[in-house]
Amino acid sequence: MTQTVDEPGPHQRRGQGGAAATATYVFAVCRDGDPAAVAGLPGQAPGAPVRLLRFGSLEAVVQDVPAAEFGQEALRERLTDRTELERCARAHHAVIAAVAAGAPTVPLPLATLYLGDERVRAALREDERRFHAVLERIAGRVEWGVKVYARRETTGGPGRSATVAPARTPAGAPEGPSAAGAAHAATPGAARSVGRSGRAYLERVRGARQERERRQQAGLDAAEAVDRALRGVAVASRRLRTHDTALTGERGTQLLNAAYLVAEGREREVAEAVEEVRSAPACQGVEVEVTGPWVPYSFVDGGGLDARG
Amino acid sequence: MTGAGREPVRAANGRLELDPDRVGRDLVCLVLTVVELLRQLMERQALHRCDQGDVTDEQIERIGTTLMLLDERMDELCAQHGLTRDELNLDLGPLGTLLER
Known about the structure:
The structure holds two protein chains of two kinds. Chain A contains ten helices and eight strands. By secondary structure, chain A is α+β, with helices and mostly antiparallel strands. Chain A folds into two domains: 10-139; 140-309, no CATH class. In chain A, strands 2-3-1-4 form a four-stranded antiparallel beta sheet, sandwiched between helices. Chain A has a four-stranded antiparallel beta sheet with strand order 6-7-5-8, with helices on one face. In chain A, strand 2 (50-55) and strand 3 form a beta hairpin. Chain A is elongated and about 75 Å long. The two termini of chain A are 19 Å apart. In chain A, 36% of the residues are buried. Chain B has a domain at 20-86. Chain B has helices spanning 20-52, 57-80. The radius of gyration of chain B is 17 Å and the shape is elongated. The chains are: A alpha+beta, B mainly alpha. The A-B interface holds A 80-84, 155, 157-159, 170, 173-177, 180-181, 184, 187, 192, 196-202, 205-206, 209, 212, 241, 244-246, 253 and B 4-7, 10, 13-15, 43-44, 46-47, 50, 57-58, 60-69, 71-72, 75, 85, 91, 94, 100-101. Chain B: This is Gas vesicle protein K. Chain B: InterPro entries: GvpK. Chain B: It is found in: Gas vesicle. Chain B: Its main location: other.
C-alpha cells in the first residue's frame, strides 16, 4: 500500500526549487463535503479560501498557501516554535472539524503540502482505495480520548519518611562511620532524628519499595479497568504512547492514553462507562480524563487496530 | 539531556534557550543521576543480601548507616546545585525512566 500522504511535510516538494509562488496545503480527504462549511475559515493562510478539490470519487480539502512561508526551512522554523505550532494545529483542526461535521472525513497530518492542485490530485488518487477503506471504517463514528493519571501522592524518600520501622537495636550496635555520623547528628529537622539506625533505614527503604510496587500495580490495574470498560462501548481502540511527566505537569504520571472509535450518538454510553469505572474500587487512586467527540484522528492510518476494528 | 519534570527555560518566542550555565547545570544533573542510580542499586543489593541472611546484624547496621548517609549526601548535593531529587532522572522514551519514580 502506498502511503504517499502519510508522511507529512515539505519533503513532498522535492525536485523543484520552490519556483511556484503558492503551494497547496491539504487538510483532509472527504466524501461529498459541503464547500460552504469551510468557505469562511481562515485555514493556514488567511486571505485564500479553503476549498474542496475533487479527485476521483472523493474530495480533498485544500488551501493555497504562500510557498515561501511553507518551504522546508520556513516550516521547520515555525513548527519548532510552540506558539506557532499551536496556532497551526488549531487552524488545521478547525478546518477538519468543520468538514467532518457534515461528511465523513479523513484528517491528513499537519503540514501536508504539494506544489499545486495537480500534484495533489495525482498523489491522492494513488491512495483512493485506501481512503475509501478508511472512510468506510470511520463514517458515522467519532473518537473519544481517555487518559488516566495516577493521583499525585506526597512521596518522600526513605530517609524522609516519618514512619518508624520496628527496629530492634542489638546491644552495642556500631555507630557507623563516626566522623560523618557526628557531622550529621546536628542536622535539624524532626524527620532526621527519627530512626538513626542503619537497620531502621534499610527497613524504611524496603517499605518504600513495596509501597511503590503496590502503587504501580494498582495504577496498571486501574488503567486496564478503564480500558476494558471503554472497549465495551467502542468499535475499535488504540493505545497511544503515554505523555511524559514534563508535559502532564501537576497531574501525576500518565498511566493510560487511549483512543476509542465509537458510533455517533453513543455519548451516553461513553459517559456511563466512564462514571462506572470512576467509582470502581480499582480506580480510586487515579483520575480519568475524557475528551471528545473528536474526528477519528487516531483511526485513519490503518495500523494498530483491534481485531474488531 | 534534561531531567524529566523540569520546564526548560524558554525565551519569549518559545524557543529553547541554550546558555552555558544551563548546560553546566544539566551536566551536574546527569552526573548526580548516575550516582543516584548506583546508590539505588546498592540499596537494592543490600536488601537482597539481608533477605538472604548471609550478613550479620552488625554488617546490616553498618551497610544501612552508610546508605542512609549517602542518601543525605545526595540531598545536600542537590540543594547545592539547585536541583531536587525528582529531577535526577532520564526519560528513556518508551522504556520509561532510568530511575523508578
